[in-house]
Amino acid sequence: MKKNLILTGMMGVGKTTVGKSLSLKLNMKFIDIDDIIEKQEGRTIRSIFENKGEDYFRNIEKKTTISELKKDNSVISLGGGSFLNSEIRNLILSNCISFWLDIKIELLVSRLKNIKKRPLLKKNNLSDSIKKIYLERKNIYKLANHRIDCNNKKLDLIVMTIIKLYGDIRN
Ligand code: S3P
Asked: pLDDT tens digits for 98-147?
């Protein structure tokens, strides 16, 4: 049985793209927590935030993530805030292999210019708002088993780096 491979990190870092590619190469299931939440709730994450609020979202996020973590043989892409929840994080640190995808704030800003899908970034100053969230979170993301430097790296290189580290632990 393969341990679940978890991807965490800021919104816009590429968790979904990297996760899909990993799952194909490793022949594991791909699970995107935000996707599942949107299907369950029948509305977008943005609409959940706007209509029900962040606390409601975090509660659903916690339940959904904990339930998905019970599956095995999966690559799981978390929402950017999920690893901050200590219950989720402790389950992941005890049972899974986790990777923090990290890039510089400036690169995140340029990737997140189209902010429509990201309710937490509905701010006038995108750069300041991303910087603030990143600085608040980076010491938590750091607790993941591995930090993957994604600065100016092609998708294939990121994926191969993760596969190597995952394989070294698993075998
Ligand atoms: C969030 C990140 C989003 C989504 C929600 C909250 C966050 O997921 O879960 O908007 O707190 O960083 P992505 O990281 O997939 O964008």
From this structure: 999 999 999 998 888 876 667 777 667 888 889 999 999 999 999 999 99
Residues 29, 12 contacting (CB under 8 angstroms): no
- Pairing state of beta strands 74-77 and 5-8? parallel
pTM > 0.85: yes or no: yes
Q: How far is the CA of 78 from the centre of ligand 1 (A)?
A: 8
Helices (H) and strands (E) in the chain, counts: 8, 5
- Closest-lying ligand 1 atom to the alpha carbon of residue 61: 9
